[in-house]
Amino acid sequence: MTAGVWGAVLFLLMSCATPLSTYLPELDPIGFGEENQSRLIRQNCEQSFVQGDWQLVHSIVFEMADGHGATVIGVTVIDGERLKTGLMGVEGFVLFEAEQDKGKSLQVNRALPPFDNPEFARGLMRDVQIIFLQPSGESPVTGRFAEGEEICRYTGKEGRITDVIPGTDGSRRVNVYDADGKRFRAVRMTGSTSTENAMVAETIRLVASGVPGYTLTMTLIGADKI
Amino acid sequence: MIFRVVLVSLLLICPGFLSYGGEKTEQPAVRVDSVQADFVQEKQLPILAYPIISKGKFVFRAPASLRWEYFSPIRTVLLMDDGHTRKFVEHDGKFREEHGMGVDSMQIVLQEITGWLDGEITDTPTFRARVAGEDRIILTPKEPALEKIISRIELKLLGSSGLMESVTLYEGEDSFTRMVFSAAVLNEKVAAARFTKP
Fold first, then answer.
1. What is the pLDDT of residues B53-85, one digit of tens each?
2. Which residues on chain A are in Cβ contact (under 8 Å) with B47?
3. Rounded to whole angstroms, what are the CA distances from A146 to A40, A42, A93, B182?
4. Which of A17, B115, B147, B184 is 20 to 30 A off residue A123, Cα-Cα?
5. Closest chain B residue to A85 measured between Cα atoms?
6. Residue B151 DSSP symbol
7. Pairing mode, if any, of strands A198-200 and A161-166?
8. Domains of chain B and any CATH numbers
9. CB distance A112–B149 less than 8 Å?
10. Which SS3 state, helix, strand or coil, does residue B78 take?
């Protein structure tokens, strides 16, 4: 195994300590008397996530700041409250497989070194949740940015804030900020395609902060309702 | 225990010594200079509701050159030539070389496959071979470290013909990758560049 490359991927997936220059933007809350508008925005936010049980398969390109990259196949299975994920080489070798019930501990079924590091598993599951699952926690605050974009702002555990910005063209952005208001994940989903009466993003791009940071570009291979 | 192998009509045939039920059978040897075949790969995992299907083609040239190409779902080419394995992945219509992330694991399997195609299925430094029933040869890793990646490889033969129908790599009981071969062409000239360029 080329431990150096795998180690670099692991390091990049684990690193999010250095702040990005992007901070939590001001939000103009939906005011009193606009309850219907607020409900509509919340509905748009909810509907921008896949509803029901799905198996989603993507090609995933890891892009690292030093120019290295690798392509794997990623599987995400949303099965009720259970989230399952797997990474495998194109040739079929499973590099990582894990599942987790909402709010419960992570169960790693298979992890080849160095992906057997618990921090990698937690980091990967966190990214998968950010991409595919509606943020948990209290009901979101709805509002608009200065440019007029409508957003849902969720406040989670330990002060983590997640902004969900559904686009009018079926796209969606998700920005996640730490308790200090510094953004550490930015997700953009574009090119929604209609599959089994649902809109599923064709391309997902996740940018993670850190030194040197990493980018995941996910292209939809298949979406099947289960 | 020795099983000689050659791929024909998509399939790998065992022209030399085949042992069924412990009885050795002498068959006329077929010289293999090259083999090309299509394959359909099925990936199954406990977490999957539906298997992942991939399609591709492989090209072998004696003694140890191999081109392992996927057309879908991701266009990739694995090349093995002169003992070196390289992997290329298509991005936006252009191939880009990648390192790590499974290339090394695949190299182990590619080396075994080229060994099967060029000569014998037998015990190697990496795998122990045994016959299971009339139509299967099972290879198990000798090293526990490799066993974590591949628990066993099953070569399924087509009846007693010596033709190979499929190769299944087991990572665990419920996790496997099965390749079923078809449309093989034997001993057709293959350009050297097929093993060095994507």
1. 999 998 989 888 999 999 999 999 999 888 788
2. 75, 77, 84-86, 97, 99, 109
3. 19, 19, 47, 60
4. B147
5. B47
6. S
7. unpaired
8. 2-195 (2.50.20.10)
9. yes
10. strand
pLDDT for residue A51: 85
* Ramachandran category for residue A67: left, alpha or beta (phi over 0 → left; psi -120 to 50 → alpha): left
- CA gap A36, A24 in Å, rounded: 26
**Residue B30 confidence (pLDDT):** 62
pLDDT of residue B75: 96
pLDDT in tens, A154-176: 998 788 999 999 987 778 999 99
SS3 call for B194: helix
Chain A residues with CB under 8 Å of B89 CB are 71, 90
Q: Are A128 and A187 in contact (CB under 8 A)?
A: no
Q: Does B91 touch chain A (CB under 8 A)?
A: yes
Q: What is the pLDDT of residue A202?
A: 93
For chain A, domain boundaries? 3-12+19-225
Q: Are B106 and A95 within 8 A, CB to CB?
A: no
Q: Tell me whether A222 touches chain B (CB under 8 Å).
A: yes
Fold of A3-12+19-225: outer membrane lipoprotein receptor (LolB), chain A (2.50.20)
Residues A52/A53/A59/A64 CA torsion (nearest 10 deg):
70
Tell me how many residue pairs between chain A and chain B have CB atoms under 8 A apart.
114
Chain-centroid distance, C-alpha B181 = 10
The answer to whether B49 contacts A68, with C-beta atoms less than 8 Å apart, is no
C-beta atoms of B78 and A57 within 8 A: no
pLDDT tens for each residue of A123-139:
888 899 999 998 877 78
Q: Is B43 on the interface with A (CB under 8 A)?
A: yes
Range with the poorest average pLDDT among A80-84, B21-25, B80-84, B160-164: B21-25
Average pLDDT over chain A, rounded to an integer: 83
Is A17 an 8 Å CB contact of chain B? Answer: no
How confident is the model over A65-118, as pLDDT tens digits? 666 678 999 999 998 888 999 999 888 888 899 999 877 788 999 888 667 778
Give the nearest chain B residue to A82 (CA atoms).
B47
Report CB contact under 8 Å: B47, A77. yes
Q: Does residue A9 sit at the B interface (CB-CB below 8 Å)?
A: yes
